[in-house]
Every structure is written in C-alpha cells, then in structure tokens.
C-alpha cells in the first residue's frame, strides 16, 4: 500500500477494502492521510449494483467508484455527498481523518462501538404528516415512512412508522424517533415513503445530518432517480441536544476537532440580574472561559467595579413525583478561577437539578445568606409537618408498643419495616424477621346498643395502603396491631368452620315472614351476570 509519490493512487477491490477496514482501521486512516486510495465494485456484481461508500468514507478513502447506470441507495448517497458543491469537486474530510494535530488522530477507530471521553449528540425526529407521498397513485394506497441514519457502523439505526391505510394524499403519522450520533459530519438521514402492501419505495430523500436544522420543516421528496417531486413532501419536527462539556467528557461536535478549532467554538451563557434594564444578559464564552472573565464581559460598559460584585450559582432540585421529599436548594458564590462550562455541566436534569447564574453585589450576597438561614428554618418546619407519628402495638413480647416517626405518604409495608427495625434495636429481636411475614391490622372497638359489651372488629391493611389516610378516618377508639400472617389466616378459617350451613339457613328463613301469594303475583327470579372488560396498559418509551 505504500507508494513513494503522493500523487500515486492504489486501487482496491471492495472486498479487500472491507477487510482492511475491519482489521486495520487506524492504520488505514493514517495511510490515507498522505496517499490516495480508490475502492471499486467487486467483479461478482454482475447486475451492476453498487457497494455502500460510507464504510470507505469514514476510513478516509478518497475515491469510491460506482456504477452510474444503477440508481440505488449507494448512488443516492454519493449525489447527496457532493450536492453542496454542485455535484463535482472535493469535500473536506473531518480533521480526525487527516490532521495529525487532532488529539484523537492516532486513537480514533470508526469500528469501535464506544469512544472513551465522548458524549454523543442526541437527535429526535418526529414524522408529523405527508403531502402526496405516493405520486401517480389514486390516493387509496397504504403508506408508511422509513427513517434510516446512515454513517459509521455505531451510528446506523432504522425506524418505521405505522401504515396509514387508504390515504396517500395527506396521511398523518405523528411518531417520534430518538437516536444519538457520534460522527455527525459523516452521518446522513434518509426518509423513504414505502407502500405497505408491496414494500415499494415511492419517494425518498437523503439529507446530511449536519445540514438538518432544528424545528418544524417541510422535507421535499425525490424519486428514485433523485429528481425533485414538486408537490410531495414530509412535515417533520427535528430536535438536537448535546450534553454539557465537563472535565472528563467532551460533546461529539467538538471531540474530533483540533485544539485551535475547539477554542474557536462558542457557547451561550445566560446571566440573570445583570446591570441594565434587561432581566438577563446572554454572553458568548468558550471552553476555557473563567468566572472572572465572564464577570468582566458583563461589566464591560456598565462602569461597575468588578471587585464589588459576584456571580452566584442557584441550583434547585427537581421532584419527579409528588411523593418525593422536597430537597433543599443550593446557593453558592462562584470562585473567580472556576470554568463556566464546568459549572453548567452540574445542571443536568438527569442529576436532579436545574440552575442559573445570577449577578449580585457583595452586600446582596451577604444579605441573602441571612435569608437563607431563615429559609432553612422554614424548610425544617415544613419537613416536620410532612412527617407523622404512628403507634404500633404488639410489636414483640418484650415491647408491647412502639411509636414510629414516618412520612405522610408511607405505606403499611414501610411502617412494618420500621417497626421491626425498632424492635431489633430496642429489645434485641432476631434479625431473621421478615416484613413479608407480617401484616398491619386495624382494630376498632365498637359499642353495642346497651353500651355494656364492646365488639372488636379487625381490618387488614394492604401493603400499599397509606397509613396516614387510614389513621385520619378514625372517629373512635382504634389502634394498629402488628400480627403474623399465618395465625390471622388460621383464626379466620376456624371461625368459618364453626358456622354450619344449617344454622345459616335457619337464620335466613327465620327472618322471612310467610305470606300467601297467588301464582300471578309471584315474580320469577332473574340471574344477573357481571361482566368485566379486559384493560390493556399501553407503555410509551
């Protein structure tokens, strides 16, 4: 493969080129940095089909020969690749494939599934609707849309919408497809409208992923010869998000850039409460911008001394469910040498926090600290109100009852766990006690009519029943008792065994008074059958 002249070009069969890509991925990229390489279709393609050029492109191979007489997916990809330059000329490769100063030039391999230290770019495509997606038909076909991400092997993914029957004029899909991409510069997005019955592609469009703009867009469709269809389009919504850069993780958009190119990448930072009439100010920073530099940019034309001001980070927790205990917010003054992007990386919703940067004077910062102390007392009082005390009886032989402090939303199973834990700590109960062997019983003492004899009734609380709600309904003498499951069940069985069928029949017949009725007055019995419908739970991921 090594040739003495840079203008010499080596031609490889597609099978040989694929073997080199799989076995010597990094060496092939380094070879194509200074040598021209060409891949051509194998001789076994007697039907003039074309190999996919993507595998060769991501390894730096400059030329891929194709059979132009065949309008297939490979030919459509090739036309899309050079469409921005009018169908001719050259397209510059990403820096990681040719620039030796790139930090990952010697370690990058397109065949690896995961790249250490890089967070992929997250995309989502929503196929909303279409217009005349099957040109030439009478509008009675059943169409669906296939969405393919084409690029490096790790980025390839395939989606398909549900078919819309008997409507190709204005079908509505409304389906969302999320995916993530590592090499955005060599990734393509393909939309293909497929007739559901015959699996025939009626319209298609391939777009470079880096050229796809976020928001609502009409994608003009093309035929299989890549000619524009005037009235055929797809209405889509696209969204692109990136994880914030941190000390150990770099977004995919800047991972393959050189140090100079990384320094030129700008990020938007919003500072609230800055000088001026506006409630917030948006500033442009790079990856190495510190808090001191951000403060100088904010006060550049205001005339305020930077030594009298500070930037404060305000982080508020996110409660994903109503039952979650509200956590305390965090407010702190940022150090002058802290990197701004490092501060922003701690605000990810996945970590449970959202935040903002606020501009304050040092006097306001000190006064807010006093207010924070008062706020902490209020939060403590609020936290105390969210907890209740529950008294559980017959916990163990050495402990007739115990008082437990628990949350308002605690279930019966959680109260049982706390009661057994209290029994182990206070009276040395064995650690082999399992909460699943016990149940929480609500005992109610009811007085009879003569108020001489009291009747005791029991109700077993379900494992997920809220104890606070059960306790709030008490209007008389009641209590919670901890009992094992087997004795309670046995007592119930013994009680029902003592009741005979004859005694029950005697009670029922004794209450009825004999009445003589004619045959015309007798009403025939009717059997009412209760039916239940099956409930299907649909889960959306």
UniProtKB/TrEMBL annotation:
One of its GO terms (biological process) is release of sequestered calcium ion into cytosol. Residues 102-229 form the C2 domain. It comes from the Eukaryota. CDD domains: C2_PLC_like. Its EC number is 3.1.4.11. Keywords: Hydrolase, Lipid degradation, Lipid metabolism. It holds the Pfam family PI-PLC-Y. One of its GO terms (molecular function) is phosphatidylinositol-4,5-bisphosphate phospholipase C activity. It catalyses: a 1,2-diacyl-sn-glycero-3-phospho-(1D-myo-inositol-4,5-bisphosphate) + H2O = 1D-myo-inositol 1,4,5-trisphosphate + a 1,2-diacyl-sn-glycerol + H(+). Residues 384-487 form the Ras-associating domain. InterPro entries: C2_dom, C2_domain_sf, PI-PLC_fam, PLC-like_Pdiesterase_TIM-brl, PLipase_C_Pinositol-sp_Y, RA_dom, Ubiquitin-like_domsf. It is an enzyme of class 3 (hydrolase). Residues 7-97 form the PI-PLC Y-box domain. This is Phosphoinositide phospholipase C. It comes from Conger conger.
